[in-house]
């Protein structure tokens, strides 16, 4: 079968990156293979994210570009299908078809396993195909095996959310919390390890709320991590995104038990003010967050934190914002994602009084980013002269250079021979910038001697 070009544009989080890979997997049996450019692609797939600011507007501007490609190809007698997937598709499916009637497929995050049927139906029926059901069990049952594609992989274990933070669309676009059965997750992790994956990132909207079926009982997230850590070949485990109220003592203990669990945790806090957290319906207070971090550091003293902040939430006062700034300084987050609040239609916060001006939001964002960038640079500079185990998984820009990840997810650039791709090597850090490190191999590589790889390494 001749290959048909599949061009995928992915917006948003790691969950979406995983979903895009899986959509590529389900389309392979129809002869689709990834292509780098939308020009000449038989299928253009846009995987959208509603968390992003002005997500719908960005989608429509992207669609305008693809419409021109589609029309040009049609003039040449070729056909290009355009599919919109992800959370914006789920939330705004009708609006997408109204404003962009040239779109052929609208599919939500829970039903993309049905893409092959939808594409096939378009062979005979030119009417747009729309599928926005909520059925995560069926999706995971019907996806093909998650094949290894390099030394790192995402593994989705949980979807949806029952927490209903007032700013967030996820409970509406991804549905209620659902955890995959333990045996299915372990089988997928084993398959990835057999394919050469050394670092697995467990994914879920509320990953640490995991409570998957294990032969009729409920397995918690700590149990799942212990089981993944037992798999031969899995040397690094990460997870994202977690919620403070699901950081139970068992999970915290796992951070102290397992060298494979990397000492870097993304734990969104969103604000440093209790009154803001209440208005956001976050279900936690600052003291609870502090207490969790204290326990985590007792279990794993070298642990570092990353977080999310929203600034300019409706009604945020100067005092509440100052509380966020001071909490960011206190916790010393080494990485953070900060967003200006922007209303998501249909969420409770969108109609709260006290919506702030763009000018105030921008000013607060800049002030917070300055604190966080300082934290990040101070931490990165503290890594200079340390020897860290780096998993090399990407070519660098310069000839002979590769980029790898430290246990703290810092990108590390070093001169490494090509055959060391996928190895975990000890690297002495020699330079630090805000977002990356430079390093040199601590032990020179002789041929492909595996003794220089750092198995099960820790910092
Ligand atoms: S916990 Fe809150 S922010 Fe996270 S997905 Fe659920 S509703 Fe959204």
Gist of the model:
With 459 residues, this protein is an alpha/beta fold. Helix content is 34%, strand content 23%.
Task: Write up what this structure looks like.
The chain is α/β, with parallel strands linked by helices. Among the domains are: 4-135, Methylthiotransferase, N-terminal domain (Rossmann fold), CATH 3.40.50; 387-452, Beta Barrel (OB fold (Dihydrolipoamide Acetyltransferase, E2P)). It has 13 helices and 21 strands. The chain has helices spanning 14-27, 55-75, 87-99, 115-121, 136-142, 170-173, 182-194, 221-229, 249-257, 274-279, 286-299, 318-331, 358-382, and strands at 4-10, 32-34, 43-48, 81-86, 105-107, 129-131, 152-156, 158-159, 178-179, 199-203, 211-214, 217-220, 236-240, 264-266, 304-311, 335-340, 387-395, 401-405, 411-415, 424-432, 437-441. Strands 2-1-3-4-5-6 form a six-stranded parallel sheet, sandwiched between helices. Strands 17-18-19-21-20 form a five-stranded mixed barrel. It has a three-stranded parallel sheet with strand order 7-10-13, with helices on both faces. The termini are far apart. Mean pLDDT is 92; it is low at 448-459. The protein binds iron/sulfur cluster. Iron/sulfur cluster (SF4) binds next to α6.
